[in-house]
């Protein structure tokens, strides 16, 4: 019959063996504990406490653009709008405005509180449209002061630069420019009208046409009188130069010709006397000579009267010629004035058109300026509301003594585990259990360890 030795049962580690391992690897455990404790204490002592101040702002979306219009502003996605607002809080213009506010609060000659953009934070509160704006700083007062400045800068920038405001500088500059150009054209038209003596071009042109027609009629009448006077004078000169024709009278030109008629009668009578005396006396006789002398005197007187009348007729012709010349000059001047009228009318029309356009432009700008003022007063520009100003700063990095105590405690656990791990790597046989595991045989007896005592 085959007999076999039964396998030894596995031994359980005793508390004594556990404590022996801990005692044997005590320096590993204590070293890890000391290193962990010193590291945590050093980091905690080096870490400075920081304070955070938080304020809240409500962003209204989809608001009515103006009280005068029922339409509403179309907005985008909720995440896009609020994400843009978060980035706007951290933007350079808002931070610069916050620095300006802090410099103004500090006063001249005093250093302003610095603003670090990396310490500014903003986030959306839940699924709402409320922004939480915070600032972190080692000093609680500084954190609250800077947070308040950032919130105010954000509100001012959002409501001033991104809202509908009246562009005063643009309208004032544009109105001044158009008014100056309008005044310049009005002055140019006034000077041109004064230099050209123009009041109403159309009426003046119509008056010139009527005046020219009247001048031409009067000139025609004067020309007819002149032609008649010239013809009469030529006939008189021709008749007076003909010896076979009796001296004419001027009853057609002069109403009072009694003196000339009396002279002609006396000449005729004297000729009859001369003829009678020649019948009675010789031609050498004193009676005939006296009668002939008297006749020649009468004829000379009559000739002088006729020549005077002819000269008078010539003076009348000269007068009529001068009158016609005056009409000709006036007609030429009037025609020259009429020829210049189209150019004057064109220039005046261009000036009037330019002035009218400038006046319309000025009226439009003034009307748009009034509309802009109305829109500014009636638009819903306040799309942000301050729900909570920058509150008192609260610490964000405090010394948590519970965590400080947990780190060394965990280091003890890790140290004990490391001690058992290192002891497991050691193959030295120190206990009965090690012997049974190494020899694969049961231990029948064990000699207790005795301490050696010193002999005297």
Keywords:
rod-shaped; 456 residues; 3 domains; 65% helix; Bact_polysacc_biosynth/exp; Alpha-Beta Plaits; five-stranded antiparallel sheet; alpha+beta; Helix Hairpins; 5 strands; Polysaccharide chain length determinant N-terminal domain-containing protein; disordered N terminus; transmembrane helix; protein tyrosine kinase activity; transmembrane
Commentary on this structure:
- One of its GO terms (cellular component) is plasma membrane.
- The chain crosses the membrane at residues 27-45.
- The protein is built from eleven helices and five strands; from the N terminus they run H-H-E-H-H-E-E-H-H-H-H-H-E-E-H-H.
- By secondary structure, it is an alpha+beta fold.
- Strands 1, 2, 3, 4 and 5 form a five-stranded antiparallel β-sheet that branches.
- Helix 2 packs antiparallel against helix 10 (401-425).
């Amino acid at each position: 019959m085959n007999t076999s030795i039964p396998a030894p049962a596995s031994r359980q580690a005793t508390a004594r063996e556990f404590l022996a391992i801990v005692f044997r690897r005590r320096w590993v455990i204590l070293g890890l504990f000391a290193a962990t404790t010193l590291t945590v204490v050093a980091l905690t002592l080096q870490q400075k406490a920081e304070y955070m101040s938080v304020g809240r702002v409500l962003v209204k979306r989809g608001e009515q653009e103006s009280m005068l219009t029922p339409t509403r502003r179309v907005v985008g996605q909720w995440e896009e709008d609020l994400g843009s607002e978060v980035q706007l809080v951290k933007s350079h213009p808002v931070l610069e405005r916050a620095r300006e506010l802090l410099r103004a609060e500090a006063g001249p000659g005093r250093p302003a509180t610095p603003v670090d953009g990396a310490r500014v934070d903003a986030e959306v509160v839940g699924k709402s449209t409320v922004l939480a704006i915070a600032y972190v700083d080692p000093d609680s007062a500084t954190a609250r002061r800077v947070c308040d400045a950032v919130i105010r800068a954000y509100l001012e920038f959002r409501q001033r630069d991104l809202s509908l405001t009246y562009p005063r500088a643009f309208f004032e500059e544009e109105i001044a420019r158009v008014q100056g150009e309008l005044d310049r054209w009005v002055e140019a038209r006034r000077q041109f009208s004064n230099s050209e003596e123009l009041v109403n071009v159309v009426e003046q042109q119509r008056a010139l046409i009527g005046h020219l027609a009247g001048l031409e009629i009067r000139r025609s009448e004067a020309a007819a009188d002149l032609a008649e006077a010239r013809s009469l004078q030529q006939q008189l000169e021709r008749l007076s130069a003909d010896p076979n024709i009796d001296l004419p009278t001027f009853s057609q030109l002069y109403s009072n010709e009694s003196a000339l008629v009396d002279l002609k009668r006396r000449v005729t009578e004297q000729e009859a006397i001369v003829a009678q005396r020649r019948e009675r006396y010789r031609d050498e006789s004193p009676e005939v000579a006296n009668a002939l002398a008297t006749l020649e005197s009468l004829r000379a007187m009559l000739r002088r009267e006729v020549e005077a009348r002819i000269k008078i007729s010539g003076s009348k012709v000269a007068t009529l010629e001068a009158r016609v010349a005056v009409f000709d000059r006036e007609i030429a001047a009037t025609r020259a004035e009429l020829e210049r009228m189209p150019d004057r009318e064109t220039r005046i029309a261009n000036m009037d058109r330019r002035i009218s356009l400038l006046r319309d432009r000025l009226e439009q700008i003034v009307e748009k300026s009034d509309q802009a003022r109305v829109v500014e007063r009636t638009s819903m520009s306040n799309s942000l509301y301050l729900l909570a100003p920058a509150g008192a700063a609260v610490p964000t990095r405090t010394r948590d003594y519970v965590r400080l105590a947990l780190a060394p405690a965990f280091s003890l656990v890790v140290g004990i585990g490391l001690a058992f791990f290192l002891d497991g790597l050691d193959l030295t046989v120190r206990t009965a259990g090690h012997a049974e595991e190494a020899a694969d045989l049961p231990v029948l007896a064990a000699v207790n360890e005795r301490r050696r005592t010193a002999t005297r």
